[in-house]
Specification:
Layout (H helix, E strand, L loop, with lengths): L1 H9 L3 H13 L4 E4 L2 E3 L1 H10 L8 E3 L6 H15 L9 H26 L7 H15 L4 H10 L1 H20 L1 H15 L2 H4 L3 H15 L7 H47 L4 H20 L3 H17 L11 H8 L6
Antiparallel strand pairs: 1-2, 1-3
Helix pairs in contact: 4-5, 4-7, 5-6, 5-7, 5-8, 9-11, 9-12, 11-12, 12-13, 12-14, 13-14
Length: 337
Amino acid sequence: EFVPYVEETYSLSEFKILQYIFWIAQDFKIQFRINNKNLEPFKVKNLLLKSIEFSEQVLIIAPETVDDSAFQDARSLYLKISGEKNFDDCDQYELGCFLAKKIRSWQNSFQSYKPSAQKKYFPGKKEIGKGLSFIKSISTKQDSFSLISAFYDNSAQILKLYEQEKNLSEFYTKHHAFWTTLIKSVEDFSENLLELNKNNEASADFDRLKQILSSPAPYDMISEAYKLVERVKKFNDVLVKEKTDQCRIDALSALDQMIENMKSLLDTHNAGMDLRNRALYSLRQIKTRVEKAESINAVNLCLNDAEYMFDVLPENGFFTKPSIFDRIRIIHKTSSG
Protein backbone atom coordinates (compact mmCIF):
# COMPACT_ATOMS: atom_id res chain seq x y z
CA GLU A 1 0.00 0.00 0.00
CA PHE A 2 2.83 2.37 0.83
CA VAL A 3 4.60 2.08 -2.52
CA PRO A 4 1.50 2.76 -4.69
CA TYR A 5 0.64 5.75 -2.48
CA VAL A 6 4.08 7.36 -2.85
CA GLU A 7 4.18 6.45 -6.53
CA GLU A 8 0.94 8.28 -7.15
CA THR A 9 1.60 11.23 -4.81
CA TYR A 10 5.19 12.03 -5.86
CA SER A 11 5.25 10.63 -9.40
CA LEU A 12 8.20 8.37 -8.62
CA SER A 13 8.85 5.01 -10.20
CA GLU A 14 8.48 1.89 -8.08
CA PHE A 15 12.23 1.24 -8.44
CA LYS A 16 13.10 4.74 -7.17
CA ILE A 17 10.76 4.39 -4.21
CA LEU A 18 12.22 1.04 -3.19
CA GLN A 19 15.73 2.42 -3.55
CA TYR A 20 14.90 5.33 -1.23
CA ILE A 21 13.40 2.91 1.28
CA PHE A 22 16.57 0.83 1.35
CA TRP A 23 18.74 3.93 1.70
CA ILE A 24 16.66 5.07 4.68
CA ALA A 25 17.02 1.60 6.20
CA GLN A 26 20.79 1.72 5.77
CA ASP A 27 20.76 4.99 7.74
CA PHE A 28 19.00 3.12 10.60
CA LYS A 29 15.87 5.29 10.33
CA ILE A 30 13.66 2.30 9.59
CA GLN A 31 14.11 -1.43 9.77
CA PHE A 32 12.73 -4.48 7.98
CA ARG A 33 11.11 -7.39 9.75
CA ILE A 34 10.01 -10.78 8.42
CA ASN A 35 8.33 -13.34 10.69
CA ASN A 36 9.19 -11.25 13.78
CA LYS A 37 12.87 -11.24 12.86
CA ASN A 38 14.84 -8.13 11.91
CA LEU A 39 16.79 -8.41 8.66
CA GLU A 40 19.45 -6.16 7.20
CA PRO A 41 18.48 -4.18 4.05
CA PHE A 42 20.83 -6.12 1.77
CA LYS A 43 19.23 -9.47 2.66
CA VAL A 44 15.72 -8.08 2.22
CA LYS A 45 16.65 -6.70 -1.20
CA ASN A 46 17.99 -10.10 -2.28
CA LEU A 47 14.83 -11.83 -1.08
CA LEU A 48 12.65 -9.42 -3.06
CA LEU A 49 14.80 -9.85 -6.16
CA LYS A 50 14.36 -13.62 -5.95
CA SER A 51 10.61 -13.47 -5.47
CA ILE A 52 8.23 -10.52 -5.28
CA GLU A 53 5.94 -12.67 -3.11
CA PHE A 54 8.18 -11.88 -0.14
CA SER A 55 6.97 -8.26 -0.30
CA GLU A 56 3.75 -9.29 1.47
CA GLN A 57 5.80 -10.64 4.41
CA VAL A 58 8.11 -7.62 4.79
CA LEU A 59 7.19 -5.15 7.51
CA ILE A 60 8.70 -1.65 7.65
CA ILE A 61 8.87 -0.41 11.21
CA ALA A 62 10.42 2.53 13.01
CA PRO A 63 13.19 1.71 15.50
CA GLU A 64 12.65 2.16 19.21
CA THR A 65 13.95 5.28 20.90
CA VAL A 66 17.04 4.90 23.05
CA ASP A 67 16.82 5.95 26.70
CA ASP A 68 18.52 9.32 27.10
CA SER A 69 21.04 8.15 29.71
CA ALA A 70 22.02 5.19 27.51
CA PHE A 71 22.26 7.52 24.51
CA GLN A 72 24.55 9.95 26.36
CA ASP A 73 26.78 7.14 27.61
CA ALA A 74 27.04 5.65 24.11
CA ARG A 75 27.76 9.10 22.73
CA SER A 76 30.55 9.63 25.29
CA LEU A 77 31.95 6.22 24.44
CA TYR A 78 32.03 7.11 20.75
CA LEU A 79 33.90 10.34 21.54
CA LYS A 80 36.56 8.30 23.37
CA ILE A 81 37.07 5.81 20.56
CA SER A 82 36.84 8.30 17.69
CA GLY A 83 38.77 11.29 19.02
CA GLU A 84 36.18 13.64 17.54
CA LYS A 85 35.56 16.96 19.27
CA ASN A 86 32.61 18.61 17.53
CA PHE A 87 29.83 16.18 18.20
CA ASP A 88 27.13 18.24 19.91
CA ASP A 89 24.18 18.10 17.50
CA CYS A 90 23.97 14.34 17.11
CA ASP A 91 20.67 12.45 17.16
CA GLN A 92 20.01 8.74 17.54
CA TYR A 93 20.14 8.01 13.83
CA GLU A 94 23.41 9.85 13.28
CA LEU A 95 25.04 8.18 16.27
CA GLY A 96 23.96 4.79 14.96
CA CYS A 97 25.60 5.54 11.61
CA PHE A 98 28.81 6.72 13.30
CA LEU A 99 28.99 3.59 15.45
CA ALA A 100 28.38 1.32 12.46
CA LYS A 101 31.13 3.09 10.50
CA LYS A 102 33.57 2.70 13.40
CA ILE A 103 32.80 -1.00 13.73
CA ARG A 104 33.35 -1.52 9.99
CA SER A 105 36.72 0.26 10.15
CA TRP A 106 37.84 -2.02 12.99
CA GLN A 107 36.65 -5.05 11.09
CA ASN A 108 38.63 -4.02 8.01
CA SER A 109 41.74 -3.41 10.12
CA PHE A 110 41.57 -6.78 11.85
CA GLN A 111 40.97 -8.61 8.59
CA SER A 112 43.95 -6.92 6.95
CA TYR A 113 46.28 -7.80 9.85
CA LYS A 114 44.99 -11.35 10.28
CA PRO A 115 47.28 -13.05 7.66
CA SER A 116 50.44 -11.63 9.27
CA ALA A 117 49.22 -12.39 12.78
CA GLN A 118 48.98 -16.08 11.85
CA LYS A 119 52.77 -16.21 11.43
CA LYS A 120 55.15 -17.21 14.21
CA TYR A 121 56.35 -14.36 16.45
CA PHE A 122 53.78 -11.88 15.10
CA PRO A 123 51.30 -10.61 17.71
CA GLY A 124 47.52 -10.33 17.71
CA LYS A 125 46.27 -13.71 16.50
CA LYS A 126 44.06 -14.35 19.53
CA GLU A 127 42.91 -10.73 19.85
CA ILE A 128 42.00 -10.52 16.17
CA GLY A 129 40.02 -13.76 16.32
CA LYS A 130 38.03 -12.66 19.37
CA GLY A 131 37.67 -9.13 18.02
CA LEU A 132 36.22 -10.26 14.69
CA SER A 133 33.82 -12.59 16.49
CA PHE A 134 32.61 -9.75 18.72
CA ILE A 135 32.34 -7.35 15.78
CA LYS A 136 30.26 -9.92 13.91
CA SER A 137 27.80 -10.08 16.80
CA ILE A 138 27.56 -6.27 16.95
CA SER A 139 27.19 -5.98 13.17
CA THR A 140 23.96 -7.99 13.27
CA LYS A 141 22.23 -5.00 14.88
CA GLN A 142 20.19 -3.53 12.06
CA ASP A 143 18.76 -0.39 13.64
CA SER A 144 20.09 2.54 15.63
CA PHE A 145 18.34 1.46 18.84
CA SER A 146 19.89 -2.04 18.82
CA LEU A 147 23.33 -0.78 17.81
CA ILE A 148 23.48 1.98 20.43
CA SER A 149 22.15 -0.41 23.06
CA ALA A 150 24.82 -2.95 22.12
CA PHE A 151 27.55 -0.33 22.55
CA TYR A 152 26.07 0.76 25.87
CA ASP A 153 25.74 -2.81 27.19
CA ASN A 154 29.26 -3.79 26.06
CA SER A 155 31.12 -0.56 26.80
CA ALA A 156 34.01 -2.29 28.62
CA GLN A 157 34.55 -4.71 25.75
CA ILE A 158 34.26 -1.87 23.21
CA LEU A 159 37.00 0.08 25.00
CA LYS A 160 39.19 -3.03 25.12
CA LEU A 161 38.61 -3.60 21.40
CA TYR A 162 39.51 0.03 20.74
CA GLU A 163 42.85 -0.33 22.57
CA GLN A 164 43.63 -3.58 20.76
CA GLU A 165 42.87 -2.11 17.35
CA LYS A 166 44.99 0.94 18.12
CA ASN A 167 47.97 -1.22 19.20
CA LEU A 168 47.66 -3.55 16.23
CA SER A 169 47.34 -0.69 13.75
CA GLU A 170 50.43 1.00 15.19
CA PHE A 171 52.36 -2.27 15.04
CA TYR A 172 51.38 -3.47 11.56
CA THR A 173 51.51 -0.08 9.82
CA LYS A 174 54.78 1.15 11.36
CA HIS A 175 56.80 -1.81 12.66
CA HIS A 176 55.94 -4.79 10.45
CA ALA A 177 59.14 -4.51 8.40
CA PHE A 178 61.29 -4.12 11.52
CA TRP A 179 59.68 -7.18 13.13
CA THR A 180 60.45 -9.27 10.04
CA THR A 181 64.07 -8.12 10.21
CA LEU A 182 64.15 -8.81 13.95
CA ILE A 183 63.06 -12.42 13.46
CA LYS A 184 65.79 -12.97 10.86
CA SER A 185 68.37 -11.26 13.08
CA VAL A 186 67.58 -13.48 16.06
CA GLU A 187 67.98 -16.53 13.83
CA ASP A 188 71.38 -15.23 12.67
CA PHE A 189 72.49 -14.39 16.20
CA SER A 190 71.56 -17.89 17.36
CA GLU A 191 74.24 -19.35 15.09
CA ASN A 192 76.84 -17.70 17.34
CA LEU A 193 75.06 -18.47 20.62
CA LEU A 194 78.11 -20.13 22.19
CA GLU A 195 80.25 -17.03 21.64
CA LEU A 196 77.42 -14.64 22.60
CA ASN A 197 76.98 -16.41 25.92
CA LYS A 198 80.63 -15.77 26.76
CA ASN A 199 79.92 -12.04 26.87
CA ASN A 200 77.62 -11.10 29.77
CA GLU A 201 76.25 -7.92 28.20
CA ALA A 202 75.64 -9.44 24.78
CA SER A 203 74.10 -12.53 26.35
CA ALA A 204 71.71 -10.48 28.50
CA ASP A 205 70.70 -8.30 25.53
CA PHE A 206 70.07 -11.36 23.37
CA ASP A 207 67.95 -13.05 26.06
CA ARG A 208 65.88 -9.89 26.46
CA LEU A 209 65.47 -9.64 22.68
CA LYS A 210 64.10 -13.19 22.56
CA GLN A 211 61.69 -12.37 25.40
CA ILE A 212 60.33 -9.39 23.48
CA LEU A 213 60.04 -11.40 20.27
CA SER A 214 58.06 -14.12 22.06
CA SER A 215 55.76 -11.70 23.87
CA PRO A 216 52.08 -11.92 22.84
CA ALA A 217 51.82 -8.13 23.28
CA PRO A 218 55.19 -6.48 22.54
CA TYR A 219 53.74 -3.08 21.65
CA ASP A 220 55.32 -1.14 24.55
CA MET A 221 58.70 -2.85 24.05
CA ILE A 222 59.32 -2.12 20.38
CA SER A 223 61.55 0.92 20.96
CA GLU A 224 63.61 -1.20 23.36
CA ALA A 225 63.88 -3.93 20.72
CA TYR A 226 65.27 -1.43 18.19
CA LYS A 227 68.13 -0.57 20.58
CA LEU A 228 68.79 -4.17 21.62
CA VAL A 229 69.03 -5.54 18.10
CA GLU A 230 71.58 -2.87 17.20
CA ARG A 231 73.74 -3.71 20.23
CA VAL A 232 73.63 -7.46 19.66
CA LYS A 233 74.21 -7.01 15.93
CA LYS A 234 77.31 -4.94 16.60
CA PHE A 235 78.78 -7.72 18.75
CA ASN A 236 77.64 -10.47 16.38
CA ASP A 237 79.14 -8.70 13.36
CA VAL A 238 82.55 -8.89 15.03
CA LEU A 239 82.10 -12.63 15.59
CA VAL A 240 80.99 -13.20 12.00
CA LYS A 241 83.95 -11.22 10.66
CA GLU A 242 86.41 -13.19 12.79
CA LYS A 243 84.93 -16.50 11.66
CA THR A 244 84.81 -15.39 8.05
CA ASP A 245 88.43 -14.20 8.14
CA GLN A 246 89.59 -17.51 9.60
CA CYS A 247 87.50 -19.47 7.11
CA ARG A 248 89.02 -17.42 4.27
CA ILE A 249 92.56 -18.12 5.56
CA ASP A 250 91.86 -21.86 5.73
CA ALA A 251 90.25 -21.85 2.29
CA LEU A 252 93.14 -19.97 0.66
CA SER A 253 95.59 -22.44 2.20
CA ALA A 254 93.52 -25.32 0.87
CA LEU A 255 93.37 -23.74 -2.59
CA ASP A 256 97.15 -23.29 -2.65
CA GLN A 257 97.45 -26.99 -1.89
CA MET A 258 94.95 -27.80 -4.62
CA ILE A 259 96.88 -25.76 -7.16
CA GLU A 260 100.06 -27.66 -6.29
CA ASN A 261 98.22 -30.96 -6.48
CA MET A 262 96.76 -29.95 -9.82
CA LYS A 263 100.23 -29.13 -11.16
CA SER A 264 101.51 -32.52 -10.02
CA LEU A 265 98.52 -34.25 -11.56
CA LEU A 266 98.96 -32.47 -14.86
CA ASP A 267 102.72 -33.19 -14.88
CA THR A 268 102.15 -36.86 -14.09
CA HIS A 269 99.84 -37.26 -17.08
CA ASN A 270 101.80 -35.00 -19.43
CA ALA A 271 98.79 -32.74 -19.89
CA GLY A 272 98.80 -30.41 -22.87
CA MET A 273 99.37 -26.69 -22.45
CA ASP A 274 95.72 -25.84 -23.16
CA LEU A 275 94.37 -28.13 -20.44
CA ARG A 276 97.08 -26.99 -18.02
CA ASN A 277 96.28 -23.29 -18.58
CA ARG A 278 92.52 -23.76 -18.25
CA ALA A 279 92.74 -25.86 -15.09
CA LEU A 280 95.22 -23.65 -13.26
CA TYR A 281 93.60 -20.41 -14.42
CA SER A 282 90.20 -21.56 -13.12
CA LEU A 283 91.63 -22.46 -9.71
CA ARG A 284 93.44 -19.12 -9.47
CA GLN A 285 90.22 -17.29 -10.37
CA ILE A 286 88.44 -19.16 -7.59
CA LYS A 287 91.22 -18.13 -5.21
CA THR A 288 90.64 -14.48 -6.18
CA ARG A 289 86.92 -14.91 -5.43
CA VAL A 290 87.74 -16.32 -1.99
CA GLU A 291 89.92 -13.29 -1.23
CA LYS A 292 86.94 -11.02 -1.95
CA ALA A 293 84.26 -13.21 -0.32
CA GLU A 294 82.50 -11.47 2.59
CA SER A 295 80.74 -14.44 4.19
CA ILE A 296 81.45 -18.05 5.13
CA ASN A 297 78.72 -19.15 2.78
CA ALA A 298 80.39 -17.33 -0.13
CA VAL A 299 83.75 -18.94 0.74
CA ASN A 300 82.18 -22.40 0.80
CA LEU A 301 80.57 -21.83 -2.59
CA CYS A 302 84.02 -21.07 -3.98
CA LEU A 303 85.40 -24.26 -2.44
CA ASN A 304 82.59 -26.25 -4.01
CA ASP A 305 83.53 -24.84 -7.41
CA ALA A 306 87.19 -25.76 -6.83
CA GLU A 307 86.30 -29.33 -5.91
CA TYR A 308 84.13 -29.56 -9.01
CA MET A 309 87.23 -28.83 -11.09
CA PHE A 310 88.67 -32.19 -10.09
CA ASP A 311 85.40 -34.00 -10.70
CA VAL A 312 85.22 -32.93 -14.34
CA LEU A 313 88.86 -33.64 -15.31
CA PRO A 314 89.29 -36.84 -17.33
CA GLU A 315 92.17 -37.84 -15.03
CA ASN A 316 90.00 -37.63 -11.92
CA GLY A 317 90.21 -41.35 -11.29
CA PHE A 318 93.84 -40.93 -10.18
CA PHE A 319 93.24 -38.05 -7.78
CA THR A 320 91.94 -37.81 -4.24
CA LYS A 321 90.42 -34.51 -3.04
CA PRO A 322 92.34 -32.79 -0.23
CA SER A 323 90.75 -33.79 3.08
CA ILE A 324 91.30 -30.25 4.39
CA PHE A 325 88.05 -29.21 2.67
CA ASP A 326 86.03 -31.57 4.81
CA ARG A 327 87.76 -30.26 7.92
CA ILE A 328 86.93 -26.66 6.96
CA ARG A 329 83.23 -27.49 6.67
CA ILE A 330 83.20 -29.18 10.05
CA ILE A 331 84.89 -26.23 11.77
CA HIS A 332 82.92 -23.46 9.99
CA LYS A 333 79.15 -23.78 9.73
CA THR A 334 77.64 -22.15 6.70
CA SER A 335 76.32 -18.67 7.49
CA SER A 336 76.04 -15.27 5.88
CA GLY A 337 77.75 -12.21 7.21
